[in-house]
Amino acid sequence: MITSGARTSRDPGNPYSSGRLFMRLWKGYLSQHKWMMAVAFIIMMIDGSTLAILSRMLEPLFDRVFVGRDASSVWWVGGVIFGLFAIRAATNITYKSLMTRISLRSSTAMQADLLAHVLTLDGGFFHENPPGALIERIQGDTVAVQGVWSSAITGLGRDAVSLVALFAVAVSIDPLWTAVALVGAPLLILPTVVVQRYIRRKTAHVRSQAAQRATRLDEIFHGITAVKLNRMEDYQISRFRTIVGRIVKTEVRTAASRAAIPSLIDLVTGLGFLGVLLLAAPQIVSGARSVGEFMSFFTAMTLAFQPLRRLGDMAGIWQVAAASLERLFTLFDRQSTIRLAANPVQPDAGRTDIRFDNVDHSYGEHVVLRRLSFTAEQGKTTALVGPSGAGKSTVFNLLARMIDPQSGRILIGGQEIKALDLGALRDLFSVVTQDATLFDETIRENVVLGADDTDADRLAQALDAAHVSDFSDTLPLGLETQAGPRGSALSGGQRQRVAIARALLRDAPILLLDEATSALDAASEALVQEALDRLSKGRTTLIIAHRLSTVRDADKIIVIDHGSVVEEGTHDTLLEADGLYASLCRLQFTE
Ligand code: ADP
Q: Cys bridge to 162: 18, 48, 83, 430, which one at CB 3.0-4.6 A?
């Protein structure tokens, strides 16, 4: 699993410390928007300073208009105040649209990069990390960091500027009053540090629970038939409720601790106000200070209150984002175990014989292949048979480099596959598997797989040869019929025929067939088998088949047991040898 424990963010050796996370975020996704950010920042500064000017206007309002009884001054004072609100209206709309643009552009860029990176990872990674968790990471975690830069800019631009400007107003009226108002501020430091750590830890927990929630949903919807047939609805719902219950509990705790800082600010501000009142009241009563000065000071301090609270929450916002960023960058740092050759060579198109030479492979502790050696001749059909779990599918995964073996060599046309260009290697294969993987697209799209410029005649030939036309012609929408999620709108045999058409069109020199006909009824099987025979003609073909009837005609049969080759030969020679193959045959025929 890609873990991302909450280390202390100040640990200098921690690659996911707040500082490093921020720098990576800045370099990768924010710095390219720096000009737009600068404009937003300036707009925020204008917005932030309007409040200070507003509070400053209260002094002439009180001292000249109300107390000084100079009615005509109301026009210019009122005009300035209206102007300030008009400016705020304009700045508000501009910065919102700018910030939305920056947030969305950077978070979607991150999503695309993350997807591109994840797609380079090996089969082992996808075995460890369920699809739901990966979806949550790409969608949920990137969105979780989306808000952070808009909050940061809003905070630093508008709130910090208003705060500074409002304090400047306060200091200009009375530095002593200001100092008294701030007397409790140092009390905030320690709780802020403690709360930040707590928030990061809890948020990391919420994010991993969210990944579990996505995984549950993914498993339920993918296994919907099994869920219903086994009456697992209540069980699945209760598991889901448990997970979301945990999310609620943790989120509420996080929110409460986040609110602790603004609450503390409230208390500290209340104390400050009380102090100022006690100090200022006698001065005003004695006439040493004016009512207007006090009102202006009081308003400046009151207006400083909201930005101060928001800034107090900024650390919390950052911690929430940092928890997601840590998960995202942990994933970015995960490298594929498939090591690409430094100077990859192109495969020799004319030679496609396959050789496994003393290949060992294990999944963790579990040894699957033991010094496996065999060859599959070019243009011939080689069948791999053996009990379930013997390691046959692993052979396919190794061949296409979904995983790499612990030791031994795998060669195609005499070249080690490790040395070949990975894309070119995979271009050598057409794969038709038992659970023919179809996408929720039209039948045509499922056959051409993105090659929209496919020649119409070639497509028609492939569709006919694979017996796809037989059924697609009878559908009202023909080839434009949607195949449904994972091809569920088609029958098993139809799905396989679509997969065969795909392979025919792909026209790769090596064909890998995995149990291609095992799940079909006799009529479908005959059609699929005929299509497969056409497909395998002239290609180097490797078949995994449990049903021995389908491999009888293979040029060579390799019997694998416990990860090693125990016998090889043709159907007849193996029957004669009376070993494992013969006993597997006897078992099937008595069935
Ligand atoms: P076969 O195709 O012959 O039935 P496989 O190659 O699929 O066998 O699997 C061989 C063994 O490896 C099995 O015991 C299986 O449980 C194990 N195995 C397969 N894939 C994985 C994996 N990703 N992680 C752990 N064990 C695996």
A: 48
Phi-psi region of 364 (alpha: psi -120 to 50; beta: other; left: phi over 0): left
The pLDDT tens digits of the residues spanning 20-71 come to: 988 998 899 889 998 998 898 888 888 888 888 888 888 888 888 888 888 8
SS3 374: strand
Q: What is the DSSP letter of 364?
A: T
Q: How confident is the model at residue 591 (pLDDT cuts 50, 70, 90)?
A: low
The closest residue, in CA terms, to atom 25 on ligand 1 is 363
C-alpha separations of 266 from 172, 193, 259, 263, 270 in Å: 24, 18, 11, 5, 6
Say which residue, 223 or 115, is predicted with more confidence. Answer: 115
128 lines ligand 1 (CB under 6 A): no
Which atom of ligand 1 is least distant from the CA of 563?
10
What lies within 8 Å, CB to CB, of 18 at 6+ separation is: 9, 10, 318, 322
CA of 368 to the centre of ligand 1 (A): 7
**Can you tell me which atom of ligand 1 is nearest the CA of 123?**
23
- Spatial contact of 372 and 399, defined as CB atoms under 8 Å apart: no
Helix segments in 334-376, DSSP class H: none
Q: What does each C-alpha distance from 137 to 119, 215, 220, 318 come to in angstroms?
A: 14, 11, 19, 18
Distance 169 CA to ligand 1 centre (A): 73
- 345, β-bridge pairs: 420
- Closest atom of ligand 1 to 366 CA is 26
Distance CA 196, CA 185 (A): 17
What is the spatial distance between Cα 364 and Cα 17, in angstroms, rounded to a whole number? 31
What is the CB neighbour count within 10 angstroms for residue 504?
24
CA of 554 to the centre of ligand 1 (A): 24
pTM of the model: 0.79
Nearest CA to ligand 1 atom 18: 363
Instruction: State which of 128, 337, 368 you would mutate to test the pocket of ligand 1, scoring each by most atoms of that ligand within 8 A of its C-beta.
Output: 368
Residue in 179, 190, 188, 189 with CA at minimum distance from that of residue 301: 179
